[in-house]
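Please fill in the sequence for the structure shown.

STRUCTURE ENCODING:
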């Protein structure tokens, strides 16, 4: 009903609308109930799909399928199901698997969050570093621009060759300072990358150890 659109509201008066609702009240309630159930189903499916996507991104999708996959290729399972008490054993084992899976899932999601946190810190540090060096580079170039303007103006009136030599020296100094900035930026980047790789390697080892313990 919430998707129903009237093309001409003037054709339906308020009294007619009320009368129609009273006349078809049961049908309307039935439609509204079905729509509510459909909306609820879609919300559950959307939430489940989002949860599965998050598990896949964290390489934890196995927790949703591990129990079924254990028996997927077991041809003897259909025969064992007929044995007395086997259902209770399977249910008990399923509970143990689900409990272990939940512990593995919670720890895995925590490590995923930590990975994301470390990655964000690294990216932020790189961005701040680049902005700092870019600002310093711009300041050096602007300072040289002012010096060049003054030297050119002085040379226009004096025509002294020393003014040209002075300007060339300033340009050489600027080139040296910019190269020095670039080298310092490379060194700092390598230092940041080393720290990030060390922390990420620790997380990777922790993940591998958790997987080995779980499986």
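FILLED IN BY: designer on duty
SEQUENCE:
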């Amino acid at each position: 009903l919430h998707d129903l659109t009237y093309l001409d509201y003037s054709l339906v008066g308020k009294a007619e609308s009320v009368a129609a609702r009273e006349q078809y009240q049961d049908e309307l309630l039935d439609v509204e109930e079905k729509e509510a159930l459909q909306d609820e189903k879609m919300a559950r499916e959307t939430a489940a799909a989002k949860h599965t996507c998050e598990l896949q991104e964290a390489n934890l999708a196995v927790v949703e399928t591990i129990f079924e996959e254990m028996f997927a290729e077991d041809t003897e399972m259909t025969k064992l199901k007929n044995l007395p008490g086997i259902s209770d054993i399977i249910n008990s084992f399923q509970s143990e698997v689900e409990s272990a899976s939940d512990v593995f899932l919670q720890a895995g999601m925590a490590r995923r969050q930590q990975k994301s946190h470390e990655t964000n810190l690294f990216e932020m540090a790189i961005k701040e570093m680049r902005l700092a060096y870019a600002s310093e580079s711009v300041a050096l170039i602007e300072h040289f621009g002012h010096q060049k303007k003054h030297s050119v103006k002085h040379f226009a009136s004096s025509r002294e060759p020393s003014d040209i030599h002075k300007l060339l020296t300033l340009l050489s100094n600027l080139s040296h300072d910019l190269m020095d900035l670039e080298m310092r930026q490379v060194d700092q980047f390598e230092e940041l990358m080393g720290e990030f790789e060390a922390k990420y390697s620790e997380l990777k080892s922790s993940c591998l150890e958790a997987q080995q313990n779980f499986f």
